[in-house]
Automatic annotation (TrEMBL):
Entry keyword Calcium: no
Keywords in alphabetical order: Aminopeptidase, Hydrolase, Metal-binding, Protease
Classification of source organism: Bacteria, Pseudomonadati, Thermomicrobiota, Thermomicrobia, Thermomicrobiales
Residues annotated for Zn(2+) 1 binding in this entry: 75, 197, 252
UniProt-annotated binding residues for Zn(2+) 2: 197, 232, 332
GO biological process, one term: proteolysis
Active site positions: 231 (proton acceptor)
Cofactor (UniProt): a divalent metal cation
Name recorded for this polypeptide: Deblocking aminopeptidase
One term of GO molecular function: metal ion binding
Similarity comment text for this entry: Belongs to the peptidase M42 family.
Listed EC numbers: 3.4.11.-
Listed transmembrane segments: none
Cofactor binding comment, as recorded: Binds 2 divalent metal cations per subunit.
Amino acid sequence: MPQQGADVNGQRLLETTAALCRIPSPTGFTRAATDFVASRFDALGLEVRRTIKGSLVVELPGGDRGAGHRTLSAHIDTLGAMVKEIKPNGRLKLIRIGGYDWATIEGEYCTVHTAPGTAGPSGITGTILTTKASFHIHAQALVDLRRDGDSLEVRLDAAVRTAEEVKALGVAVGDFVSFDPRTVLTEDGFLKSRHLDDKAAVAILLEVACAVVEGGAPLTAPTHLYVSTFEEVGHGSSAGLPVGTTELVAIDMAAVGDGQTSDEFAVTVCVKDSSGPYDHGLSRHLVDIAVEHGIDCRVDIYPTYASDVSQALRAGYDVRGALVGPGVDASHSFERLHRRSLEETTRLLLAYLGSPPGR
Ligand SMILES: [Zn+2]
């Protein structure tokens, strides 16, 4: 089915998502990632503004100035951790940033981002293991062990046996810890990686910008892109939304799994999550547009979920909010998506941006 003004480059979407996934950006430590995104907007000739707390805001060219403004948001921050404690034996205790199960980081390679001028710009690598990791020593105790902040620790890739030796490397309580995303693109168009939530959506924002600036995709209303940096901890788009925003559409991953309609090959409009129902009219409008344009779109509900829209509404913004996103399997765990869900989400957004405002 032909797509109006929607020249979507699926391979570029995959590659941009993969590039973003490889840049460490746990919540609170997002500067390198926002710099990367800002440089991509800059290359399109778009002026990038940073809010005081670090979100990126870009206005796309075009749109009828008399219409209410539309803002698309996506978050660049991801799950991660911080050094909570340096143990006497030189291992590190972690505290989580964002919501995930401890078991999903067991065995993962990680990087401790030490202060500039200490261990070098790339930090110190390590592995997250249980305190009873050796099967030959602990056997049944390892099987029975509950995975939590006390039973998991970081083994640094450095010749250290004491807390003093670790501190001498420059490692300190409060250092950010990022997880190896293990980003892999397969020949069949799957992208396996940590942090597809929500790097995939940031890549989609960049593709939308490209389609408007280079492809001439039409805008009917003034349109802004907003890249938030604190979504995983609950206050992503709670401040600094573009003035005049009346419709806020969060782009965030659709949860694929038992009992869900979402899947890895489609876009989903989420009509309700833990924060309540999204705007009925705007959600309906998005679903209608998908039908009109032959876009594979699902409607779903996420029982344990909130978004940039939830956070903006809780902060007091008077906007109509909707949530759409590409299907991601095994969210906040070993995530995977398919190129088609990136394409379908981008097509839906471009069709929305070209649709009459206030419908
Ligand atoms: Zn998310």
